[in-house]
Write a structure and sequence with these properties.
There is one protein chain. By secondary structure, this protein is an alpha+beta fold. The protein is 33% helix and 17% strand. The chain contains 38 helices and 58 strands. It has an 8-stranded parallel β-barrel with strand order 11-12-15-22-23-24-26-27, surrounded by 4 helices. It has a 7-stranded mixed β-sheet with strand order 25-30-31-32-38-34-35, covered by helices on one side. Strand 50 and strand 51 form a beta hairpin. The chain is globular.
Length: 1506
């Protein structure tokens, strides 16, 4: 199971969340727990409850959660009460505004931040925040409204529970209730949501409550590990005072630093005057003499005698909990383990103490070096800070060192009057004083956000790595409320006050706030306001770490600052990263897996935490940057003052003069209107942003057109309208810096309806400065004008390319600071085609309803739904429509489509495309070569339609449908072709599957998704082709399919032939294998309901019976080979299954069989020349075996098989008259499915079978027993006219009844095949060859006797087809051995891995001198084949029913778990099949068939049994 704690899954309210048991969890007892409460209960993030699995339409096991509430829910998977996996689901809030509470979508948000300290009295707020309303914002974000400290910093709150008294003018006292009323007025009357900041990580240094409750901060009593850092901090303060007084000027450290020489001198003073005097290393060290004396006393008491020499060799230092100098001690037990006495003599004790003392001195020396390392880092940080604050051009240039601006910030609050350093040191040990030395807050660059730098283990304060906020106190919550009750209660009340007033909160310094604290506080807030909107800033840049915070806190939105981008390219890249889908994105299904998402974003042109943008770029860039932000497909934001070009009001730290009020008419210094700054432009941009989000413009494309020129397209995927913004950035002042005059033309596809906005930023040539220091500038704006009226662009030529009309737009005077936004619609013809296309796609999904248009003249083939056309197709037609690999296609003169610069498709049919699109679609991978090929031309579309048109009939109709649908694609913009091509293919594919399953059995129709996928193997493998047609069956049969051959132009039979595997065994002489056909027939044809096709295949092969055998290789009917002993038994087993599973199935026994070889010596007969009922053919096969079969293959020699030796062409098969076992073969041929013939001359294995398995192969004996037993029953029921077989002997004939034959096999099987645990077993003739007991032999009487004793999976086949042969207990034990030794992830090892010739990796190309593997000699000597797994699992299930309910239930779980691996492979396989084999441990084998008929068939049989 995946661990998804750091994956982000987002849902909107109203969605239903389903947990489904995936394939890998089938058969396992998995319990899902969640902290999501039941109806009527409160949310508690630590309280989990189990969820119940329910069966859903008999196909899957699901858990459903409905009515999801805002915030987050956590889920865990547990097995045996142990958590094994889990994750989070974040549910977005629903924000409502207006008197009617209409919903404000998150992507419609346009937020403006207000610094609360600049709002003035509460009764003036409406006039001041009206600026936000009149400029199109719909959210106001307030910095904290609480009482601030003396620093005036917006986030330094002095009292979290008190409203800032500055909001109450003289004579009035406003309360939180008054603020709440104002916020509600804004929500209802102005349609504006209000949120406010919350700060949990610190409080202002002047907060009264923190001094009354110093335990709420980090002080020297509750955090004594900070003592060295506190001492250093005080020493640095005194040093700073001395520097300010000029004491070190003669040493090169003046109050005013000038250059690098002063910095080097400062390093020396720091070491001499501070670190060497503080002797901070003593806080880490051990008092050596005291420790040695204590050690001596322990030795003298006899503790050190006889200690184990096998002890660890490292002394353990015990940390002094009070962190005093030399306070650390040694763990004496570890010391006594290391320094042991040989005797109790005084000399031995003294020697031991000397060694102990020496080790302590070494330890102290190491600790000295450790502290020196900290001191060096502290020195570096101090010097770097001095350089930044006093010398760097990017710094504040603080000037000389003074007491107001000391050498470095103080890290600890010191509440007492000035005193000497020695006096201060004495206070450190006085608890009533030391508890008030509180640590300041700040941040540590590069710190792990999950690590608290004030806790033990961090040395940030000592190493001076903290960027300190000296007006704050860092809060210490502990791990739970009981650790600091006052603080938790205080901050919870603060949270509840905020949640009652505001619709949401912004968690300031989220990364510096302990996760469990923020989690608890936001849970309290949601208890007050369930639909709480949560925003957070300052994130890490690591998506995984960000996701952890988002998940744990249920964060709705992350703030991203456009100014925070390192450069323009990064900024423009962030737009596409966080905003929407790409233009031309694929249409996703409504029911789909929940996939990891990125966090919802608020893209801000500038945030309160940033410096003024005027300090980093030109004022001419303000409007272009706002445009870039507004075109993002997410929430957007700004800060009050930015739109007015007032940099001083953007600072959260410095100025605090009051905001100006709105006045739409006058323009005075204390009022603003649309003529101020870029307010008019921002109004237009905010309106546009909200309109685009509301109308579904969810796709985004960002393009760099020229230096500083960016185009952003927002596209609506349903109506295919676009809004294109072109803007020119001005990172530097264009009046003082050179900029390129000419701007390259832009080509916009479609028809430009209007210019939505055109804005030009102009400066005042008089170089007047406004009151805030920026050049007075004006923004000239035009809205909703025609292209001809534009002042910055003009229309040039119309260009036709890629099925679209492009308008060339040329720029005139498009200087930095200019913006132009176009509204674009498709050309009328294109619009009609898109609308008609969407209209026809509605049959597949209602999502195409929007933007659809009915046609005046619809092509006739599209007049009826595709499902009607699909219903005319046979399953053989479906093979052509969906599948056919390259080898099959080439036999028809074609081939699979080859995607340039990539690969050929696996199939010529739709599955080839679907497999590729399944990888592309969820990721919207529009850069894939397939998408590029579709954009470049119609070749692939022509291939799909023409391939089917060539077939005519019903397939031709489907081809016409594709041709008509693709006709629309030829008249739309090429960038839209991939997504609509996918919609057409996906819709057709789904319709085809629906039609297929309607033609299959109820087992398939009502089955699971895995059953359906495996059943498609029937369509995949069964097709009609003139080059591999089955032998003609009797013309007297009814219901035989016919068609007009496109080769002979004659009416011919067209029975489906079953391919053994794709892509290697599917065409020409290698397609039809007797053995593989009948191993697969039950699963792929009988269980799927394809009874007619199964009958025809059985009868076609019956007609080929020769020498009592059916061919191993059909060879197109003209080059058949009768060299396998098992195919005829698989054929007989399939007839038995047909009679059992098909209604009135026994009627097949009377069906006429057209015999090709009526006698062993006759040549091929013409159609209809010799027919006989099937039961006669069956009797002939059985009688031939009982009489004995001996012949030499026709055309024997190298021309038939270049690798086989001459003796190998001799075929011999018979029945042992004593045991009833069939036997056959010799050491030069291989007549079973394990039929690898050696090919390597280099390794000297050519002509040698790897697995001859001559003698009585166990699975053939089982198949024979199954057949004979069935014949007995058939005869007794009157369906089979023969009761015995006749044997000629010495001129006489005697008969053996089927009852007798059946009895002989039953009596002898376990005697001869079971390998007993008894080493004296009288039936065991060669006990020396036994290497495993409690199993069944693989063969009996092999020419190489040791081969009989090899553990292989073949006995499992006998176990399933003839379970009566096996004693239950013995069978169960043997199954356990097979499971342990042979079972792999997907298949079964074909040989015991303990066998000396085992080799699990099959490489048919390898030709070395290794006899056992060269040229794939180990094909069946270890590689893990899949089809035997089906027999193993079915046998396991069968015998489990005999072992009791508990065993059966455990077996069912085992079977589900194993089959789940096949489900995973099927889901991921681009071939959509199960492979022939894998290499050892389930590794992919490149020489294996990717889809094997027998593998899919036998696993489907397992599901049928299950």
């Amino acid at each position: 199971m995946e661990r998804l704690e750091r994956a982000l899954f987002r849902l909107e309210q109203g969605f239903e969340l389903q947990f489904r048991l995936g394939p890998t969890l089938q058969g396992r007892e998995v319990q899902v727990y969640t902290n999501y409460p039941t109806n009527g209960h409160k949310f508690d993030c630590l309280k989990f409850r189990p969820l119940d699995w329910v069966y859903h339409t008999q196909r899957m096991t699901v858990i459903k959660l409905r009515r999801l509430m805002c915030g987050f829910l956590q889920y865990t998977f547990r097995r045996d009460k142990e958590k094994v996996s889990g994750g989070y689901i974040v549910v977005d809030p629903v924000l409502r505004v207006g008197a009617n509470d209409f919903i404000l979508p998150l992507d419609c948000i346009c937020s403006q931040t207000y610094l609360a300290k600049c709002l003035g009295p509460l009764d003036k707020w409406l006039d001041r925040v009206r600026v936000a309303k009149e400029t199109g914002y719909n959210m106001i974000h307030f910095t904290p409204l609480q009482k601030l400290g003396v620093s005036g910093f917006c986030y330094s709150i002095a009292d979290q529970l008190e409203l800032n008294p500055d909001f109450s003018p003289e004579g009035k006292h406003y309360t939180w209730g008054d603020v709440g009323n104002l916020v509600e007025t804004l929500r209802k009357d102005w349609n504006m949501v209000c949120i406010s900041d919350v700060v949990y990580n610190h409080t202002e240094v002047s907060s009264e409550w923190i001094h009354l409750h110093p335990e709420c901060g980090y002080n020297l009593v509750n955090s004594p590990h900070l003592k060295p850092a506190w001492l250093l901090d005080r020493a640095l303060w005194h040093l700073s005072c001395e520097v300010a007084d000029g004491k070190f000027s003669d040493q090169g450290v003046p109050a005013s630093f000038q250059d690098e020489w002063n910095m080097n001198a400062l390093r020396g003073v720091l070491w001499q005057q501070v670190f060497s005097r503080l002797r901070l290393w003593e806080f880490l060290q051990v008092h050596v003499d005291e420790a040695v004396e204590q050690f001596r006393q322990r030795l003298q008491a006899g503790s050190g005698v006889g200690s184990s020499p096998e002890c660890e060799k490292q002394l353990k230092i015990v940390q002094d909990p009070q962190h005093r100098r030399f306070g650390n001690t040694v763990d004496m037990n570890s010391a006594l383990d290391i320094f042991t006495l040989h005797s109790m003599s005084p000399s031995d004790i003294q020697e031991c103490c000397i060694c102990f003392k020496k080790r302590l001195e070494e330890l102290n020396s190491e600790l000295y070096k450790e502290m020196n390392h900290h001191a060096q880092q502290a020195t570096n940080c101090i010097v770097e800070n001095v350089v930044y604050e006093r010398l760097s051009d990017q710094g504040p240039k603080l000037g000389p060192v003074t007491r107001k601006y000391p050498l470095c910030s103080r890290y600890f609050y010191f509440p007492f009057k000035e005193m000497t350093f020695d006096e201060e040191t004495e206070l450190m040990e006085q608890r009533d004083k030391a508890c008030h030395f509180l640590a300041h807050d700040g941040f540590v660059k590069g710190n792990d956000p999950l690590r608290n730098w004030a806790e033990p283990g961090s040395e940030a304060y000592l190493r001076r790595e903290l960027v300190c906020q000296a007006d704050t106190i860092k809060l210490r919550y502990g791990e739970k409320p009981e650790d600091c009750r006052y603080l938790w209660a205080h901050m919870k009340t603060y949270t509840e006050i905020t949640a009652k007033v505001f619709s949401g909160v912004c968690v300031v310094n989220c990364l510096s706030t302990p996760l469990h604290v923020a989690e608890a506080m936001l849970t309290a807030a949601r208890a007050i306001r369930p639909n709480l909107y949560v925003m957070a800033d300052r994130f890490t840049g690591s998506q995984l770490i960000d996701n952890l915070f988002i998940n744990r806190l249920g964060i709705t939105t992350l703030v991203r600052d456009a100014l925070g981008a390192a450069d323009r390219q990064k900024e423009e890249g962030s737009l596409s990263w966080f905003c929407g889908e790409p233009v031309g994105a694929f249409f996703q299904p409504s029911l789909r897996p929940l996939i990891p998402a990125v966090a919802h974003t608020m893209f801000m042109d500038v945030s309160p935490s940033n410096h003024s943008p005027s300090q980093t770029c030109s004022v001419f860039d303000f409007l272009p940057r706002s445009t870039l932000v507004s075109m993002a497909c997410c929430a957007t934001g700004s800060i009050r003052g930015y739109d007015e070009l007032l940099p001083c009001q953007i600072s959260a730290v410095k100025d605090d003069h009051e905001y100006t009020c709105w006045n739409s008419e006058a323009r005075t210094c204390d009022q603003v209107n649309l003529q101020t700054g870029i307010l008019a432009g921002k109004l237009a941009l905010n309106r546009l942003h909200q309109k685009l989000a509301a109308e579904g413009f969810t796709q985004v494309y960002v393009e760099q057109l020229d230096e500083g020129v960016v185009a952003v397209t927002r596209h609506c995927p349903s109506r295919h309208q676009s809004v294109v913004a072109v803007l020119r950035r001005a990172m530097k002042n264009p009046e003082t810096q050179h900029h390129k005059e000419d701007v390259s033309s832009v080509f916009i596809p479609g028809h430009i309806q209007e210019v939505v906005l055109e804005a030009v930023t102009n400066s005042n040539k008089k170089e007047d400065k406004n009151s805030n220091g920026l050049p007075e500038c004006t923004v000239e704006i035009q809205e909703h004008i025609q292209l001809k009226d534009s002042k910055v662009v003009r229309k040039a030529d119309m260009v036709s390319k890629d099925n679209s009309i492009y308008q060339e737009i040329m720029f005139e005077k498009f200087t930095p600071g200019c913006v132009v936004i176009f509204r674009v619609t498709p050309e009328p013809r294109c619009q009609e085609q898109l609308g008609a296309l969407r209209h026809h796609l509605i049959q597949f999904s209602p999502q195409y309803q929007t933007g659809s248009l009915a046609e005046h003249s619809t092509p006739s083939i599209l007049a009826e739904p595709l499902r009607i056309i699909m219903s005319k197709l046979t399953l053989a037609d479906m093979n052509m429509l969906l599948y056919r690999c390259d080898a099959e296609e080439r036999e028809d003169g074609g081939g699979c489509y080859n995607i340039p610069s990539w690969l050929p498709l696996n199939y010529g049919g739709l599955q080839g495309l679907m497999s590729v699109m399944a990888e592309i679609r969820p990721k919207n991978y529009l850069g894939h070569p397939l998408c590029e090929n579709l954009r470049q031309g119609d070749w692939l579309m022509n291939y799909v339609s023409e391939r089917l048109l060539a077939k005519g009939g019903a397939l031709g109709e489907v081809g016409q449908w594709f041709q008509a649908m693709f006709g629309y694609l030829q008249n739309i913009p090429r960038y839209l072709v991939p997504c609509y091509f996918d919609s057409i293919i996906q819709g057709a594919y789904t319709s085809a599957l629906e039609a297929i399953f309607k033609n299959m059995s109820s087992f398939v129709q009502n089955g699971s998704s895995l059953v359906k996928q495996l059943a498609l193997g029937s369509v995949q493998m069964c097709g009609v082709g003139h080059r591999w047609a089955l032998p003609t069956i009797s013309p007297h049969l009814k219901d035989v399919p016919h068609h007009l051959s496109d080769v002979t132009n004659q009416v011919e039979q067209c029975c489906v032939a079953l391919a053994a595997g794709l892509p290697h065994f599917c065409a020409g002489v290698l397609r039809c294998w007797g053995r593989d056909t009948f191993i697969s027939l039950r699963g792929l044809l009988l269980l799927t309901g394809r009874h007619l096709e199964a009958r025809n295949i059985i009868l076609a092969f019956a007609g080929t019976l020769h020498h009592g055998l059916i061919p191993s290789l059909l060879g197109q009917g003209s080059s058949m080979r009768y060299n396998c002993r098992d195919a005829v038994w698989w054929w007989l087993q399939s007839i038995q299954e047909y009679c059992t599973l098909v209604p009135n199935g026994v009627s097949i026994l009377k069906c006429p069989v057209r015999r090709m070889y009526p006698t062993d010596v006759s040549g091929p007969q013409p159609t209809g020349a010799w027919d006989q009922p099937l039961y006669d053919v069956i009797q002939e096969a059985l009688q031939s075996h009982m009489q004995g079969i001996r012949f030499r293959e026709t055309d024997a020699g190298p021309q038939l098989d270049s690798n086989m030796s001459d003796e190998g062409f001799n075929i011999e098969v018979g029945v042992d008259q004593t045991t009833g076992f069939t036997y056959g073969g010799n050491r030069f041929n291989c007549g079973t499915w394990m039929n690898k013939m050696g090919e390597s001359e280099k390794a000297h294995n050519k002509g040698i079978p790897a697995t001859p398995r001559d003698g009585s192969a166990v699975e053939i004996v089982g198949l024979c027993k199954s057949t004979v037993h069935w014949i007995v029953k058939l005869h007794n029921d009157g369906h089979f006219p023969y009761a015995a077989v006749n044997i000629p002997s010495e001129g006489q004939t005697y008969s053996v009844s089927y009852v007798e034959w059946d009895f002989k096999i039953q009596e002898n099987f376990e005697k001869k095949f079971y390998i007993s645990h008894d080493p004296q077993d009288p039936e065991e003739k060669q006990p020396a060859l036994v290497h495993k007991r409690g199993i069944y032999k693989d063969s009996l009487g092999a020419s190489s006797p040791w081969c009989d004793y090899q553990l292989r999976p073949n006995f499992l086949i006998a176990m399933m087809v003839a379970p009566e042969l096996f004693t239950v207990e013995k069978a169960w034990e043997a199954l356990g051995v097979a499971e342990k030794k042979l079972m792999g992830p997907l298949g079964m090892k074909t040989l015991d891995p303990d066998d000396m010739v085992y080799c699990g990796v099959y490489d048919n190309n390898l030709d070395d001198d290794n006899f056992n593997r060269a040229k794939g000699f180990n094909y069946h000597q270890g590689p893990e084949w899949l089809w035997p797994v089906g027999y193993f699992l079915r046998a396991k299930l069968y015998f489990a029913t005999k072992m009791g309910k508990r065993t059966y239930d455990e077996t069912v779980n085992l079977v589900k778990n194993i089959v789940s691996r096949h489900a995973v492979h099927l889901e991921r396989s681009p071939w959509k099949g199960l492979p022939e084999l894998t290499n050892e441990n389930g590794q992919h084998c490149p020489f294996s068939c990717e889809c094997q008929a027998s593998a899919m068939a036998t696993i489907l049989e397992v599901l049928y049994d299950l």
